[in-house]
Specification:
single chain, mainly beta, OB fold (Dihydrolipoamide Acetyltransferase, E2P)
Length: about 210
C-alpha cells in the first residue's frame, strides 16, 4: 500500500509528451509544505498518464492544486552514475482557489532493519528504520522517523522483516554529494501513527 495526498503550487509549466506507443504523459514540479520545520517548502516531481495527462497539460503555473497518488523512488543512470529520483504518480487531482496545508502519507511494507533509538538531553527520543514497499516492477525504500511515544513503540515492538502500516507526513532531507558536489535529496516519512500488521509469521524476518 502506498497512498499519499499532497497540496501545493505548480512551480513549473506542465510538460506533455507521448510515449513510443502514443500514450500521453505530463509532468511538473509541485511546491508543497514540507513536514520539516527547518525548511518549510520543498519541490517534488509529479507525473500523470492518459486522460489525466491531457488535463494536467492545460493547467497553469502557480495553480493551487490537491493531488492524490503514490510516492515512488525511480532509479536512473546518467554518465555511469546511478541516482534515485522521487516521483509522485498522480491518480486524481483537484484545483483549488488557494493553497491548503495537506501532507499525508499512508504506506505499508516490511521493515528493512531493526529500529535505532536515540535519546537526547532534552528528554526526547527519535527512532529510525527503513521500510520496503513493493510495487509491480521494483521495491521502493523509505526512511522512517518517529518521535516520542510512537518512537518508543517502534523501538520496542518493530523488528527487521516485520510488516507494518504507517500514517504520517513526507519531508525531504538534503545534502551535498562529496564526490560530485551536487545537491541530493531523499524522502523521509515522519511517522504519526504506527500499526503492526499480520501475526507472528508475518513479523518474522524476510530477505529483501
Amino acid at each position: 500500500m502506498n497512498n499519499a495526498v499532497l497540496s501545493g503550487i505548480i512551480s513549473s509549466p506542465p510538460q506533455l509528451r507521448y510515449s513510443h506507443d502514443n500514450k500521453p504523459m505530463s509532468e511538473f514540479l509541485l511546491a508543497f509544505q514540507n513536514a520539516s520545520k527547518s525548511e518549510s517548502v520543498k519541490q517534488i516531481k509529479c507525473v500523470g498518464f492518459g486522460k489525466l495527462a491531457e488535463l494536467i497539460a492545460q493547467l497553469d503555473e502557480n495553480q493551487a492544486i490537491v493531488l492524490v497518488g503514490a510516492i515512488n523512488i525511480i532509479s536512473k543512470e546518467s554518465n555511469g552514475t546511478k541516482t534515485k529520483v522521487t516521483e509522485f504518480k498522480i491518480s486524481a487531482l483537484d484545483m483549488v482557489s488557494s493553497p491548503v496545508n495537506v501532507n499525508s502519507v499512508s504506506i505499508a511494507g516490511r521493515v528493512g532493519r531493526d529500529p535505532e533509538v536515540r535519546y537526547f538531553e532534552s528528554g526526547t527520543n527519535k527512532t529510525s528504520c527503513s521500510l520496503a514497499v513493493r510495487r509491480t516492477s521494483q521495491t521502493d525504500w523509505f526512511d522512517l522517523e518517529a518521535w516520542g511515544k510512537t518512537g518508543e513503540v517502534m523501538g520496542n515492538y518493530v523488528r527487521k522483516g516485520g510488516l507494518i502500516g504507517i500514517l504520517g507526513q513526507i519531508k525531504f532531507e538534503e545534502w551535498t554529494d562529496k564526490s560530485t558536489g551536487e545537491l541530493r535529496s531523499k524522502p523521509v516519512i515522519l511517522v504519526g501513527e504506527l500499526e503492526l500488521l499480520g501475526g507472528k509469521k508475518e513479523q518474522e524476518q524476510e530477505d529483501f
